[in-house]
Amino acid sequence: MLKRLSVLALGWWLAVPGYAAVMPAPDVSVNPIGRHLVLNLPQARLFLYQDGKLARIFPVAVGKMLTQTPTGSFDITGIYRAPSWHVPKSIQEEMRRNGKEVQTVVPPGPNNPLGPVFVRFGESSLGLGFHGTNAPSSVPGFRSHGCVRMRNNDALELAGTVSRGDAVTVAYQTIILSEDEAGQLWLTVYRNHYRQSDPSLPYLADTLLAWQRQHQVALFGQRVDDALKQRKGEPVCLSCKSGKAAVSGGLNPLPWLSKMTPSVPVPPPAPAASQPQNEREPASPLPSARAGQRPKAAARAG
Question: Of the listed 36, 86, 147, 193, which one is catalytic?
Answer without folding.
Answer: 147
